[in-house]
Every structure is written in structure tokens, then in C-alpha cells.
Design goal:
The complex is a heterodimer of chains A (450) and B (472). Chain A contains eleven helices and 18 strands. Chain A is of the alpha+beta class and 450 residues long. Chain A folds into two domains: 212 residues, PmbA/TldD fold (2-Layer Sandwich); 228 residues, no CATH class. Chain A has a six-stranded antiparallel β-sheet with strand order 3-2-1-4-5-6. In chain A, strands 7-14-15-16-18 form a five-stranded mixed barrel. In chain A, helix 4 packs parallel to helix 5. The longest helix of chain A has 18 residues. Chain A is globular, with a radius of gyration of 24 Å. Chain B folds into two domains: 216 residues, PmbA/TldD superfamily (PmbA/TldD fold); 233 residues, no CATH class. Chain B has ten helices and 23 strands. In chain B, strands 1, 2, 3, 4, 5, 6 and 7 form a seven-stranded mixed β-sheet that branches. In chain B, strand 1 and strand 2 form a beta hairpin. Classes of the chains: A alpha+beta (450), B alpha+beta (472). The interface between A and B is large, with 75 and 78 residues. Strand 2 of chain A pairs parallel with strand 3 of chain B.
């Protein structure tokens, strides 16, 4: 990585050095901290300042895998973790594809992940920013209340060492602010949110976050339940990013190799409208989730998954790649030291279109502009492809934005929605998620309401 | 019956008193320490193989200091006196920039309030026995039908010891043992793939498997996937919905449970604010949140602020009787807390959370509820849900559902979300069965923290809910 963390690397190395003959060991060591400030009615409601550290150890022998972790770097505890992981090996089923990643000669692309300004930013200034965001939001509209104004930052250091020769370490920090709003009119209350992300707090755009949080809530005041019919949906950039998050599990090489993706036999086929080119590119420094190495210590890389609507590639860890007789795409992901690596997209981006959101809306005859979705985890099944989610937004009629609507669902299938995309916006938004957002227009979606 | 032996406190009480005094050293009125030591074991099966057995250890302390309206919080995995004092200092500074007073803390005698009887501690059971069950469910699911193409199963147990002390003298401990088993099945046919799942989980030990057969669980999950291979798209628009007993507690969890959490009410972010004493549901609805429900997934001896769990009636015969409370909100309103202050781990701040939330029996025969429905949807298994408490709009997924035509359950439907408005739906429940059952173990997410919760309800009918399908 760009900046090495010798202290953690040494802890990982010491674990790996204990490997006996025929044993593969991977040690993943992590340490991190966070600051979370919440302001309510001009006062600090809470201030969280915390640090954590731990180690996760994977042991593989005769094709069997065992794993253990502990939330401490105390040397005695690390020894116990190794003993537990070794003990767990005997219960795994022997798997010819099991194994650690091996160095593949792909060099990590250096990026800047550590911001000195953020590291030294004063607590008092962080509090002042959080209060300022609340104040700015309240000033926009008298119907607005602020439920919470938040500042969050975090830093992390990781090191991974393996008996197969991988030794990587690095550190990074990041910060963002967010504000949640309530808009009141009579008995009715609607909610909104806004946020801003930056390498350091100096990059925050507080007025924009405040404006969005206010507008999202007030726009929905007076919303009613729409009739049920087929419409064109215009997805806000944040909704598109959430949609891509669902799509990503169909492009997951492990799901493909285990028969859980409807794209399994479709490489080379037209699976989406030709406007769709989807890449996963953690090497793009604009991406919030940019990284130079993946969860197994291999270099992160740019992968074209769908090109002009044609399915080109699945993402892989070394394990899923071996199962499908291909090579890792640098897409091993892990949830810190407490998890062993899985497979996932890291930083998805759609190639943008040429029109602004306003121009795209002007092109819609009968539709709904979806600002928020609810229940992506409960009504979307990436294995069957069934897609159904609660939504709220504004009706569009003959290119004009009309009345607000809520308490309805939009439904189709993932397979159809990709083919039914009719336009993409030029409004790329680098959101704090695994996908960048932009406005996406999809035809022939069922709106279910009254 | 031999409950888990009561072990020595995680940290000596004189150290706790020093830490709490340090927490108040900047002049704050309240300091609290929460200590957790959790050991967990999990094993996963996928594609016919035991992928991995995982052992985990999470141990640490969270220290909370309250000064006026401000809460300072710090946590550490270092449970030495030095480590705890450093975290207390950080929390104290976070809450307030200091006055340097010296405080003395006197802890009350330790309170234990065990509600769960654990007979077989999971760590006394060989890992091989846990893993062997996974192999059995793989065969059981695959033998249901040749269309079963993939089986994933998971076993998990956790043994968590907690100790809570605060500057008001509260001193409580609890031991929470949870055991869980889940199965997910994929079936494939010409029309595409479908999924089925089932799970069991209780706040008890390995004895859970004496009453519940994991192979039957696998068969149920497989049958769900197979049935859906022939499913047609769910309808769109509003229609009557009958929800099978023990599958629809999530409806109440979302339609009103979250809206009755005092932190959301206090900020005016709930449609139920200012409604205590008012009729908010059909007159035969009584809703209870009960952390003492022995063995259930959301059962706790004391909550994560050291307050003993209790049974709270939230809605009685349709009338809103009370909200759920944690320490901060109860303190602000000068009332007793209700045992609902919970947190995901020592690294998180507590807030108002549900435990086991359920609706008591009504008087209808479940068969009559279906028979009296001319056209509608019968939901036999629900997925997760979510709610916007300010507007009351909520969604929940249906993972096993059928059409009701002329009073009979007919064709299976594909998955989708249902959407409704909480206060409206509570009034639109027009039939309530007499066949109460608790549902599957759940994890409730709020503000980024997940905690185990249970829910339950008898078979019931909502006269109109919007079905998020694609068919006309």
C-alpha cells in the first residue's frame, strides 16, 4: 500500500511464521478509530470517541479451512486465536479449491488514502461544523425540523501476511457529515436527508447537504397514494446506487460458481440495454470506496463487467476464481478482522449519459421520479430476480414534475429492468457507498398504489 | 436443570467505582460502564461442503458519561484498570470540558435477574456435533425434489456475559446464551430460480435441538422454494391480506413498534407522538413487548443499561398505553425506564429497542378468516421490513404467499414487498385469530446497530394492504 504499517505487519508476520509443514496461514490485523458527533437543537447530543483492534486468522490444511478472530492484539490472545483456527480446520470439508491468494504480479496502483488535515482537525471545529449544518438546514424552510445533524470520521490500518508470500499493509481515513430532517404541515410529517463527503472537513459542501435535506422532506408534504399502473421511473442518483448494489450480487463469481446467479451461463450475451457499461474500479481515486489492495492482499484493479449491454466478466476472489478456472479480479472483500474473505464489487460506476436530470425528466411522458426507496432488503431477491420496493417521489406528466406521491411500490424483475433502461444522466455523484450514483430512467415498471 | 455456573464479575467492583468516579471527574452527573465478554462459534455449509468453522472472541468495555443533554462515549478492548480509566477519561472529556471535582461512587449489591434457563451450554458440546447437523440438512433438503440445486446452512451460538455499573449505584450482570440454525435452499426450473428459507433461534443452549428437528427445517425451506417454481407474479394494488400465525409479527414491529420507541417519540419523529390514551388500533388489538419471555430470541435478564427486563403493555384493547423507554428518555421525562435500553455491543451506545413484541389472541377461528375472504393474499412467511416512523409508512417482504380466491388458498405467488401506513393498518385489522404463535428469530436494525428480537401474532386479516407485485 501507499503507506506501510510495520507494527501491524510484524504482528501478522509473527503469526504466519508459526506455520508448520503443509499448513497455509493468513493473518489479517486491523486497528481503527472513529469520532461520531451528533448535534440536536444546538447542543451536542452525543460525542463518541473510540478505538478498536483485532486479528483474524485463517488456517488451511489438506483443503480444509478453519477461522478464528479476537478483538484484541494482546500477544497471548493472538496465540489463542491461532490455536482455535487450527482446531477448527478438522471440521471443514476438504475442498480442492480451498487456498490462500498467491502473488499474481499485478502491482497495486498507489493512491492517497491518508489526509493529514483530517488527522489534525480540531475536535472543537468538528463540533462547530455539525452545529453549522443544523443551523443552515433550519434556515431554509420554516416547516423544517432537524432530527439529527451528524459528523463522522474514521481511520483504519490493516496488514495482511500469508504463507504464500503476500505481505501488504496500509492505512486510510475519511469523514462525512449528514443531516436528517422532518417537515411538518398540519398532522403530516415527512422525512428527508442530506450528506456531504470529503477527504477532509474542508471539502464539505454544507449548504448543498442542508438544501437537499430540506427539499427532500418538504417536496413530499401533501403526498398521496398514486393509482396502480405501468410507468417510466426516473431513479435519483442515490436510488440508482442502491439498485447497483443489488445487481452486484448477480455478478459475484462465488454466486455464479454455486448456481445462485441468473447470469451464470450468460457471459457474452446482451443482458442490458446497450447504454449500460458497468465497471468496478477501486483504482479510481474519486470513488469513496477506492482501495489499492483487496481483502486477500492482491492489487485492486479496474474490471469491465458489462460493456454496451453485453455481459463481460464476473468479479472473483482467488477461491471463486479457482472454482471457475479463472484468475482473481482483486475482489476479495472482508468485514474487518472478524470475517474471512468473501467476494464482492468494491467501487461500481456506470458510464454516464449526456443529459442532466432535468432534461431526462422533460423527456418522460408518464412516470414517477423516485427519490427514496424502502425495503430493498425485504422485497428484492437477486437469485430469482424479483424486484419490489416501497418508494416515494413525484409524478411526472408530459415532461412536467407534478404532485408528490408516497406509500406505493415499484416492481419488475432485475433481468427486465437492465434491458428496459432508456436513459442515463450525466450527473455522476460519488456517494459514500460501493457504487457511484447517477440518474437512471427505466421504462415499463409497475407502480402499485391505491 | 443446571444453569451456567455464575462466574466471578468481569472486573472487580472497586475498579468499577474508580472508573465511574473518573467518568464524573469533569463534573458530569452520570457515568456508566458496560463490560462485555462474548464467545461465539459458527459453522457454515454451502455447496455440500462445510466451508469453515469460525470461533470468535469479543471483549471490551463501553463507558458513557452524561452531562446535561450531552453524552460522551468511549470504548476499549483493554479491561485493565489503566485501560478502563483511560476510556473513562476520554468519555468524560467528550461529555464536558472539566471542572475537576472529586466524586465517590457507591455501587448497590449486584443484581441478577435470570429469565432464561440454559441446560446445555453450547461450549460443552463438541464442534463435531454442530457440524454433523449441517450435513444432515444438506441431504434432507436435496432429497425433497430433484429441482433443489443449492443448499446453504448455518449453525451459530454465542455466550455473552455482561456487567453494567453506573454512578447512581446500579450494578447488574447477565449471561445471555443464544443458539441459532438456518437453512436456505435454491431450486431451479425452466421458469428460473426460486429460494426458500427457514430458521430457528432461541435464548437457550444446545437443548434447542431436542425439540426442534433441523431436517424438518430443511424440508420446509426446500418445499418453499419448490412451490415458488410454479408461482405467478404477485398482484398490484390494494386487497385484503391474511397473515398466518407466527409469521407476521414483523408487521407490528414496523407498523407501530418502532414508532413507540421513546427516543423517536421525544424528537417528534413518530406518528404516535402525543397519542397515549387514544384509540390507535382496532379494539381487539393488545400489543405487548416482553423481555422476560423465557427462551425467546429477544429475551434478556437485564437490559444493556442494567435495568431488569419486564413485560410492557403498549396497546391495550386498541388504546395506546405507553411507549418503550431507556435511561436517557426516562430521565428526561422523570419516569421509570422499561427495560428497553439495548446495544449491539460494548462499542455502541444504548438506545430504545424492542425485545419480544407480539399481539395477543383474538377470537376468530383461523379457517374462518380465510373462508370469509373472497379475494386476497395469504402470507405464510414474511421477510424483513422497515419503517419511516415519522410518516408511518412501512414495508415488509413476503417470501411465501398465495392467492385467496372464493375463500380458499390457491396459487403460489412470487416474492414482493407489501406497503402500508402504520396507524391506518392498525385500524384496518378486521379479524384476529385465536391461534397465537411466536415467529422466526429476527435481527432488528436501528441507527446501524443490530439486536436480536422476537415477534409473534395469531392469524389475522388486514382489510386492505398494497401488494407490490407486477400483475394487474
Amino acid at each position: 500500500m501507499s503507506v506501510e504499517v510495520p507494527e501491524l505487519q510484524a504482528i501478522a508476520d509473527r503469526v504466519v511464521a508459526q506455520a508448520s509443514k503443509g499448513e497455509q496461514i493468513e493473518a489479517y490485523v486491523g486497528r481503527g478509530g472513529e469520532t461520531a458527533i451528533r448535534v440536536y437543537e444546538g447542543e451536542v447530543e452525543h460525542f463518541v470517541s473510540a478505538q478498536s483492534e483485532g486479528v483474524g486468522i485463517r488456517v488451511i490444511k489438506d483443503g480444509r479451512t478453519g477461522f478464528a478472530y479476537a478483538g484484541t492484539l494482546d500477544p497471548a490472545a493472538v496465540g489463542e486465536v491461532l490455536a482455535e483456527a487450527r482446531d477448527n480446520v478438522q471440521f471443514g470439508t476438504s475442498d480442492e479449491f480451498a487456498g490462500l491468494a498467491e502473488p499474481d504480479g499485478v502491482e497495486p496502483i498507489p493512491q492517497k488514502f491518508w489526509d493529514e488535515e483530517l488527522e489534525h482537525f480540531l475536535t472543537s471545529e468538528k463540533i462547530a461544523i455539525t452545529k453549522e449544518l443544523e443551523k443552515l438546514t433550519l434556515a431554509i424552510d420554516p416547516r423544517i425540523r432537524v432530527e439529527e445533524s451528524n459528523y463522522d470520521d474514521g481511520w483504519g490500518e490493516t496488514a495482511v501476511s500469508t504463507t504464500t508470500g503476500i505481505r501488504e499493509s496500509g492505512r486510510g481515513n475519511s469523514c462525512y457529515v449528514s443531516v436528517g430532517t422532518l417537515a411538518d404541515e398540519g398532522d403530516e410529517t415527512q422525512v428527508g436527508y442530506g450528506f456531504s463527503v470529503g477527504d477532509s472537513p474542508k471539502e464539505f459542501n454544507l449548504p448543498k447537504a442542508a438544501r437537499e435535506a430540506s427539499d427532500r422532506a418538504t417536496r413530499l408534504l401533501g403526498a398521496t397514494k398514486p393509482p396502480s399502473k405501468r410507468v417510466t421511473v426516473v431513479l435519483d442518483p442515490y436510488v440508482t446506487a442502491q439498485f447497483l448494489g443489488v445487481i452486484s450480487s448477480t455478478l459475484n463469481g462465488e454466486s455464479v460458481s454455486k448456481g445462485r446467479s441468473f447470469f451464470a451461463d450468460r457471459l457474452g450475451d446482451q443482458v442490458a440495454d446497450s447504454r449500460i457499461t458497468l465497471v468496478d474500479d477501486p483504482t479510481n481515486p474519486l470513488a469513496y470506496t477506492a482501495t489499492d489492495i483487496d481483502g486477500e492482499g492482491l492489487a485492486a484493479r479496474r474490471n469491465v463487467l458489462i460493456e454496451d449491454g453485453v455481459l463481460k466478466k464476473f468479479v472473483h476472489s482467488s477461491y471463486s476464481a479457482r472454482r471457475l478456472k479463472t484468475v482473481s479480479t482483486g475482489n476479495a472483500v472482508r468485514g474487518g478482522f472478524a470475517g474471512s474473505p468473501g467476494v464482492g464489487c468494491i467501487a461500481m460506476q456506470l458510464t454516464p449519459g449526456t443529459k442532466s436530470q432535468d432534461e431526462l425528466i422533460a423527456d418522460v411522458d408518464d412516470g414517477v421520479w423516485v427519490q427514496m426507496v424502502q425495503g430493498l432488503h425485504s422485497g428484492v431477491n437477486p437469485i430469482s430476480g424479483d424486484f419490489s420496493t416501497g418508494a416515494s417521489g413525484l409524478l411526472i406528466s408530459k415532461g412536467q414534475v407534478g404532485a408528490p406521491v408516497r406509500e406505493f411500490t415499484i416492481a419488475s424483475t432485475l433481468q427486465r429492468m437492465l434491458l428496459d433502461v432508456v436513459a442515463l444522466g450525466n450527473d455522476v455523484d460519488w456517494l459514500p457507498t460501493h457504487a457511484a450514483g447517477l440518474t437512471m430512467v427505466i421504462r415499463d415498471v409497475t407502480m402499485s398504489g391505491a | 436443570m443446571s444453569p451456567i455456573p455464575t462466574s466471578a464479575p468481569l472486573v472487580d467492583s472497586d475498579v468499577l467505582a474508580k472508573v465511574l468516579a473518573k467518568g464524573r471527574s469533569t463534573g458530569a452527573e452520570f457515568a456508566e460502564i458496560y463490560i462485555e465478554d462474548k464467545r461465539s462459534t459458527s459453522a457454515g455449509l454451502d455447496d455440500g461442503k462445510i466451508e469453515q468453522v469460525t470461533s470468535g472472541r469479543d471483549r471490551g468495555a463501553g463507558i458513557r458519561v452524561v452531562s446535561g443533554e450531552t453524552t460522551g462515549f468511549a470504548h476499549t478492548s483493554d479491561l485493565s484498570e489503566r485501560g478502563l480509566l483511560a476510556a473513562a477519561q476520554a468519555a468524560a472529556i467528550a461529555a464536558r470540558q472539566g471542572d475537576g471535582e472529586v466524586h465517590t461512587i457507591a455501587l448497590n449489591p449486584l443484581v441478577r435477574h435470570p429469565v432464561n434457563n440454559v441446560r446445555i451450554a453450547p461450549d460443552e458440546v463438541a464442534k463435531a456435533r454442530k457440524v454433523e447437523m449441517l450435513h444432515r440438512v444438506d441431504s434432507a433438503a436435496r432429497s425433497v425434489d430433484g429441482a433443489v440445486v443449492q443448499v446453504t446452512a448455518g449453525y451459530g451460538d454465542s455466550m455473552k456475559r455482561i456487567l453494567i455499573a453506573n454512578s447512581d449505584g446500579v450494578f447488574s450482570a447477565d449471561e445471555q446464551v443464544r443458539t441459532l440454525f438456518r437453512v436456505n435452499v435454491v431450486a431451479n426450473a425452466d421458469g428460473g430460480m426460486q429460494t426458500g428459507r427457514d430458521s430457528i433461534g432461541q435464548t437457550i443452549g444446545f437443548e434447542i435441538f431436542e425439540d426442534q428437528d433441523v431436517e424438518e427445517l430443511a424440508v420446509r425451506a426446500a418445499k418453499r422454494a419448490i412451490t415458488k417454481l410454479k408461482a405467478r407474479p404477485a398482484p398490484s394494488g390494494s386487497m385484503p391480506v391474511v397473515i398466518k400465525r407466527g409469521s407476521g409479527g414483523v408487521l407490528f414491529h414496523e407498523a407501530c413498534g418502532h414508532g413507540l420507541e421513546a427516543d423517536l417519540v421525544g424528537k417528534g419523529a413518530s406518528v404516535y407522538r402525543g397519542k397515549v390514551g387514544e384509540m390507535v388500533a382496532a379494539p381487539f388489538i393488545t400489543l405487548v413487548d416482553d423481555g422476560t419471555m423465557t427462551g425467546e430470541w429477544g429475551a434478556i435478564g437485564v437490559d444493556d443499561e442494567g435495568h431488569p427486563s419486564q413485560r410492557n403493555v403498549l396497546i391495550e384493547n386498541g388504546v395506546l398505553t405507553d411507549y418503550m423507554w431507556d435511561f436517557l428518555r426516562a430521565r428526561k421525562e422523570r419516569r421509570r425506564q422499561s427495560g428497553n435500553g439495548r446495544r449491539q455491543s460494548y462499542a455502541d451506545l444504548p438506545m430504545v429497542r424492542m425485545t419480544n413484541t407480539f399481539v395477543l389472541n383474538g377470537s376468530s377461528e383461523p379457517d374462518d378468516i380465510v373462508r370469509s375472504t373472497e379475494r386476497g393474499v395469504y402470507v405464510a412467511q414474511l421477510g424483513g421490513g422497515s419503517v419511516d416512523t415519522a410518516s408511518g409508512d412501512f414495508v415488509f417482504g413476503m417470501t411465501e404467499a398465495y392467492l385467496i380466491e372464493n375463500g380458499e388458498i390457491t396459487e403460489p405467488l412470487r416474492e414482493g414487498n407489501l406497503i402500508g401506513n402504520g396507524p391506518q393498518v392498525l385500524n384496518d385489522i378486521d379479524m384476529l385469530g385465536n391461534d397465537f404463535a411466536m415467529g422466526n428469530p429476527g435481527t432488528c436494525g436501528k441507527d446501524g446497530q443490530g439486536v436480536p428480537v422476537g415477534d409473534g401474532q395469531p392469524t389475522l386479516r388486514v382489510k386492505g394492504l398494497t401488494i407490490g407485485g407486477t400483475a394487474a
